[in-house]
Amino acid sequence: MLCSKWKSVVGLEIHAQISSESKLFSAAGTKFDAVVNSQVALFDAAIPGTLPSINEKCVEAAILTALVLECNINTVSSFDRKHYFYADMPAGYQITQQFHPLAENGQLTFHVIHENINKVPYSKTSLIKQIQLEQDSGRTIHDDFSKTSLIDLNRAGTGLMELVFEPDLCNGLEASALVRELLLIFERIKTCSGRMEEGALRVDANVSITDSDQLGTRTEIKNLGSVRAVQLAVDYEIFRQLNLVKEEKEVVNETRGWDSVANKTVSMRDKEVLQDYRFMPEPNLLPLNLNMFDINKLQTKIPELPTVTRNNIMSKYGLNIRKTTILMNEPVLLSMFFEIMNYDTFRNPSRVWNVLTIEFMTELNKRSIEPKQSEIPSSIIGEIVDLLDNKLVNLVHARKIISKIFDEKNKSPSQIVKENNWEQISDIEEIDKLCKEIMLEYPKAVKDYRRGKVQAIQFLINHIAKKTNDRANFGLVSKKLEEFLKNY
Q1: Which residues of the chain, if any, have pLDDT below 70?
Q2: Which residues on neighbouring strands pair with residue 257, listed in sequence order?
Q3: What is the full DSSP assignment across 41-72?
Q4: Burial 319-344 (b: 16+ CB within 10 A, else e)
Q5: How far apart are CA 153 and CA 147, in angstroms?
Q6: d(C-alpha 280, C-alpha 98), whole Å
Q7: How confident is the model over 186-212, as pLDDT tens digits?
Q8: Which of 216, 294, 382, 477 is the most exposed place for a label (fewest CB within 10 A)?
């Protein structure tokens, strides 16, 4: 935690690869897993005499993104050359929009949900300074064994949208929540795949701490490639800077990377000397006139956005903001939720949420399967929900069924229950008999309960569970045991 006089300030710069079959200024392909250096046009390799040609689909994608994020669209924008040397940038410069970007002054509102359920969720709005179009660089692969570096230019020239946010976040949780919301928006509007594992969305975080209204010395954490990395890296950097101040050491303006193994940021290069990028207008591209594009038509293409879906879920199904946000953060589970509820509107939404986001996700995590990789249809999960709703199985065996369906895909949940004798015991007479038997078998626990040791009832419940192979209806068991023990 920060001392009371210190506050942390975080601003994000997000690079989103535009979903397009060709690059920003050439006709080369953009397939992620293509053969190395197989998607490189002459322009991407900076062959002398080649000229850029703007990809209108990339411009439309950026306009649509800017509209969704409530930005002011600049009717005329222009491109600049940003000069710096990278081995995987053959031209020695990047074409970007430093001074006259495509859009400015937007905002993104999102919900911040802490893992601690006792902490109240809250909404936050981060302002967007600008959205600009630019080229991506290639990829350098360093081989420590052979002491060589290999260059792959497949990504060089791919269209990027850089979203520059104002420094108005406070910590890693807020930063990661912003990225999650942006990923949900991209999933809806299809302007970026959002596949962070493929580098389609990369985050740079600017972090500082201050004890006044002035911003402190900031460090930049480059190329964060997952939502979790964003949260961990930002929080670590805040912690590191605070410790430096406590030790009366100086926070240095530098670029840092995230070491996911050591879980800490590491210094890459200092920024004490201002980098001179020698910006100049791009001479081979005319100013970008958006009057050439039908912005009103693009506006009509905006689908239902996450904010609307979130409000509809809370209104229709009675889920709170925490449950709704958790569900929406996994689009595959969200789709399954809708399918399950639409098939039978009388199903309990909270139970469906529990089975999907807790029990089903737990099994997926055990098997290291992403939700989008799962082959389990929503109808199977719906049947498990029905078994629980109808008290035909309890939660213990519902979990076992979920585990079984991954290995026995040709069997229904009901068939699995029958074959394994997992039907729940809910018959009142049988429950009465079980409770009386267990009280006779463990008289000490009965005496302990009557002497005020209320936890003794759990001892008795555990033994009934063992006796019935976890098949007993534990709600009825608990109720009956309390009734018998009080009247014993």
Answers
A1: 1-4, 270-275, 488
A2: 266
A3: -TTTTT-TT------HHHHHHHHHHHHHTTPE
A4: bebebbbbbbbbbebbebbbebbeee
A5: 20
A6: 10
A7: 999 999 999 999 999 999 999 999 988
A8: 294
